[in-house]
Design goal:
Distance between the termini: 22 Å
Helix content: 25-40%
CATH topology: Rossmann fold
Number of strands: 6
Strand order of the largest sheet: 2-3-1-4-5-6
Strand content: 15-25%
Number of helices: 6
CATH architecture: 3-Layer(aba) Sandwich
Order of helices and strands: EHEHHEHEHEEH
Number of domains: 1
Radius of gyration: 15 Å
Length: 194
């Protein structure tokens, strides 16, 4: 079993007049493949928690690409274009997958779209087809848009719980074909690592 893991993460503040540019992401997280895997594995991050849970159950993790910036203005077009370009390229190169789990903040906007997360989910569905489950993590106060509402979403139940311990609940939904990877790793609505 193979699960693709991208991260597209920024908390957009539309009151901030300065757009977030690629350089803002490069200061926080801008990596793919093995570099992404090494930077997040075992860390208390959403993607780190998902990697831990999947690997504990012997599921192959395919680290995709990860971009993360601190809270700031809407993302510039260059960021939106980079996300789409990388997602398309890695999807074409990764071969057959059984699932795709995307780590979001949930309020990401760009000058091109007020729903970057929803657009990424729609693009993932376009690239991978209807036969795999696509799920995402979302911050507690992230937006669940109409586009996002059709996907399994895992949100931390409280800001006081470490984020990586709450990323797995999306995988326990009945429609997720690899639910076994997380059944022992969490309970709903509160996730706890064993």
């Amino acid at each position: 079993m193979r699960v693709l893991l991208p991260e597209i993460n920024q908390e957009t503040n539309t009151f901030c007049a300065t757009p977030a540019v690629l350089e803002d992401y490069k200061r926080t997280l801008f990596a793919e493949g093995e570099e992404l895997y090494q930077r997040v594995r075992g860390k208390e991050l959403c993607l780190g928690g998902m990697i831990d849970a999947l690997e504990e159950d012997g599921i192959e993790v395919i680290p995709d690409f990860g971009i993360r910036a601190t809270a700031g203005g809407v993302s510039a077009s260059e960021v939106y274009d980079e996300v789409e370009k990388r997602f398309r390229r890695i999807a074409a190169e990764c071969g057959k997958i059984d699932g795709c789990y995307i780590s979001f903040h949930g309020s990401h906007q760009s000058v091109d779209s007020d729903d970057v997360c929803g657009d990424a989910l729609v693009l993932a569905r376009e690239l991978f087809g209807k036969d795999i489950v696509i799920a995402c993590s979302n911050d507690l106060h992230g937006d669940i848009t109409k586009k996002c509402s059709t996907m399994p979403i895992s949100s931390p139940p409280t800001r006081h719980i470490p984020v990586w311990t709450t990323t797995i609940p999306a995988t326990v939904l009945p429609s997720w074909p690899i639910a076994c990877c997380a059944m022992k790793s969490c309970t709903w609505p509160m996730a706890e690592r064993l």
